[in-house]
Write a structure and sequence with these properties.
Layout lengths: L4 H26 L2 H7 L3 E10 L2 E3 L7 E11 L5 H11 L4 H8 L6 E4 L3 E2 L3 E10 L4 H4 L12 H5 L1 H6 L2 E9 L12 E4 L7 E4 L3 H10 L5 E7 L4 E7 L7 H5 L14 E2 L5 H10 L8 E3 L2 E4 L2 E4 L7 E3 L1 H7 L2 H11 L1 H10 L7 E3 L2 E2 L14 H8 L6 E2 L1 H12 L3 E2 L5 E5 L5 E4 L6 E2 L3 H17 L13 E13 L2 E12 L6 E8 L4 H18 L6
Helix pairs in contact: 3-4, 8-17, 10-12, 10-13, 10-16, 11-16, 12-14
């Protein structure tokens, strides 16, 4: 059937009329008061500026986190565009032109600022930066600024640090499409000061920073402990960037490893323990041995580092000269049972806990059965063989000698504080346990002081008062090409007469305890004396 042209024209006319009516209706809707009312209907938007997690303080209430600051700004969009551009040019840290383009959308926003200011079109605030790099291994890091702590004290005291948190926000009045309404001032919500609550440590921030600088060019660890057990410095080198953990995961120097809590070959520092064991057994300080430069143990010969031998030496001379044959012979006189008993009293072979989840490795202390072969006992006598210990264990052991024979458990955390920085919960200091007689400790103190006055450490004597200590150049059996890797130590206390601080310096792959650890030890003692840290 043929369709008539008139009918086609009629249908087309009807459709055209329908679409014209629809278009007219849409235009009408967009120009009605109802639409305009919807577009200008008030609502609010809350813009987040910054977070702050609870603070970790040193013993003097100096912050170890939230120590530094930066600035954030909120764009309060004015009707006067020229004024806004001027304000942004002054305050914005980033390219202000891109921020002006963003402002043209009519919506408020947050940006990085250069300083704190209250202007017509910009509110900027000082906000804390979480990490400054101080004591990174102890402090650790959380999964994010406000979420669960992942390592270190961030994890150990996660609940406390999370409860003492704050934030910075601004509430803007906007229309239905999110554009800021002119003439309506935003509301500020700033609870960042709540993050003043947190945890107080025994560390001394300035000493910690100084020791970290001293250790910056080496791999190793340094610990400074008061004789009452408070740890005032615990440094592991190299350190890492808490804001860029991924970069440290692939670093061949393993910066995430806390070397202060890791176990190493000890070497001659262990001769301090052998000396204590001998004196506790009643062996005289005049006990002598003629060192020819070696000692024979059946078919095995162990050499002294002094190839020509030390000749006839007594206890003090042997410690000053670090005579291996003397201490091997001394260990034979002591016996493996008494030597191990003494080492255990000094916490060798035992983990030491500083805070929940923060503990040293136990290291390795051979068993009595392990020491049945004469060579095994000989190796233990000079700190070699299977013996491994952490810098923290060595610090606790040497501290017992400095503390007149009383071993105190180390303390890292003083307690918790509220937002007003008032102590609300405290960790008591350990009263200690006597493990050797006061007379024994006094003799060992005198002998360790002689190492600085009579031995190779003379040039690393403190500028003020006298130091005491013992060095190690511990063999590891690990080869780097044709060269054996050595772990080098200087373990001691300061001042030598009236000890107040135990100081441990361990340098991985060093040359010798004297040349590698000695300069750092001296820097620390000189700083302690010059910074008013010594009690009269």
């Amino acid at each position: 059937m043929q369709v008539k042209p008139a009918r086609i024209i009629g249908v087309f006319s009807m459709l055209l009329a329908f679409f014209l009516l629809l278009a007219f209706r849409l235009i009408s809707l967009t120009t009605t008061d109802a639409y305009q009312q919807a577009a200008t209907q008030k609502s609010t938007v809350l813009i987040h500026g910054a977070d702050a997690r609870g603070t970790i303080y040193d013993r003097n209430m100096q912050p170890l986190v939230n120590e530094e600051s930066e600035y954030v700004g909120f764009a309060v969009l004015p009707q006067n565009t020229e004024q806004f551009v001027q304000d942004m040019r002054r305050v914005a840290k980033s390219d202000f032109e891109s921020l002006v383009e963003l402002a043209q959308k009519g919506r408020p926003f947050v940006f990085q600022a250069n300083f704190e200011a209250l202007m017509e079109s910009v509110f900027s605030f000082r906000v804390p930066v979480r990490y400054s790099g101080t004591a990174a291994h102890l402090i650790g890091y959380p999964t994010s600024v406000t979420e669960t702590g992942y390592t270190g004290l961030e994890a150990a005291y996660n609940d406390v640090l999370s409860e003492n948190s704050g934030e910075l926000e601004m509430r803007f009045t906007v229309d239905a499409v999110g554009r800021q309404l002119s003439g309506v001032q935003p509301e500020v919500f700033n609870s960042l000061s709540d993050a003043a609550g947190g945890v107080v440590l025994t560390l001394d921030r300035e000493l910690q920073k100084y020791v970290e600088e001293c250790m910056a060019e080496v791999k190793g660890a340094a610990i400074v402990m008061r004789t009452d057990g408070d740890i005032v410095t615990m440094c592991s080198a190299p350190t890492f960037d808490q804001n860029d953990i991924a970069a440290s995961l692939e670093d061949e120097n393993s910066p995430l490893l806390n070397r202060a809590l890791s176990a190493y070959n000890v070497g001659s520092v262990f001769k301090i323990i052998v000396t204590c064991a001998a004196l506790e057994c009643g062996i005289s300080t005049d006990f002598s041995y003629d060192c020819p430069g070696y000692i024979d143990l059946g078919s095995q010969r162990i050499h002294c580092h002094e190839e020509e031998g030390h000749g006839v030496v007594n206890l003090q001379q042997a410690l000053v000269g670090s005579c291996n044959p003397y201490f091997i012979h001394l260990a034979q006189e002591i016996g493996r049972e008494k030597l191990l008993e003494t080492a255990k009293k000094f916490l060798f072979g035992q983990s030491i806990t500083l805070a929940p989840g923060i503990a040293s490795k136990a290291g390795i202390l051979p068993s009595e059965e392990d020491l049945i072969p004469p060579a095994a006992l000989a190796n233990l006598a000079i700190g070699q063989g299977t013996l491994l210990a952490t810098p923290l264990q060595v610090a606790v052991a040497v501290n017992a000698v400095a503390n007149d024979g009383v071993l105190v458990q180390p303390r890292l955390v003083i307690g918790e504080v509220n937002a007003q920085q008032n102590l609300v919960e405290s960790t008591p200091q350990d009263t200690g346990e006597r493990i050797i007689s006061q007379r024994t400790s006094e003799i060992v103190q005198e002998n360790m002081a002689a190492v600085f006055t009579l031995g190779d450490l003379k040039k690393y004597q403190a500028a003020e008062y006298q130091s005491a200590g013992k060095t190690s150049t511990a063999q590891t059996g690990i080869l780097d090409g044709d060269r054996e890797v050595l772990q080098t130590w200087l373990a001691g206390f300061y001042p030598a007469h009236d000890p107040q601080y135990t100081i441990i310096v361990m340098v991985e792959d060093g040359r010798s305890g004297t040349s590698s650890a000695g300069p750092i030890f001296k820097q620390i003692t000189d700083y302690i004396a010059s910074s008013g840290l010594l009690e009269n």
